[in-house]
User: What shape does this take?
Amino acid sequence: MKIIQRNEAVRALRKIIGLTQAEFAVMIGASKDAVVSWETGRNELSETFARRIALATGVDGRTLRLGVSVPFSAAADAHFYTKADFERHQQTELGLTEAAAGRRLEHCLDTLRLLFEAAARASEDQTGQRWPGLLDSFMQWGESAREDFKLGPQIDAQLAQRRFPAGVTQTYHEWRAMARQDPAALRAAGFQDDPGKGDREELRLELNCVPGWAPGRSMQPPKPAVMRAVL
Assistant: This one.
């Protein structure tokens, strides 16, 4: 096993599985700059990301941090890692089927339930109120996960399927501002400006709305924490 330079195994692994630096970064929730810094040896691969890469690919996480020229598989019969190892790991270990994904989701939901129930009970003793801090931690994780793994478009597509009719009340000033941005869409939504109405007067329109992204709060119709009109 030839030692070359720190993190060379990261570059080797990425090329074996056939991903660009940007694609590899998205897979593990890192920035492209972080991947570049690992591959050039500018920064050391952390244990956290080594573990995340190992979980995503089936590679032996220890060899990623040693700087070997080719990483090893995490399989019982340790051998030089190949594209076949990656494909096998994706199909079997991660269980990328709808049924397997559903089971993993249930496991994650059970974990969250246990955490929040434990925090609620802990706030009844003398250790202090843990619930708000845990909730904030969860909300920050949700925001980071959405951003790090570039999941915004997919989440928005799911939220769009929760479309619902809702009455929206705004001042004429707000409706007029929206009309300047997209007059045809607002006309289709039923807005007709009345010059006799002052900017502060209100108007209610029935619009199609979708829930907005709001981790830790309701994203279900008809009363999500955040919503946006579909014009």
Q: What stands out?
A: The CA atoms of residues 87 and 124 lie 48 Å apart. The beta strands are 164-171, 202-211, 227-230.
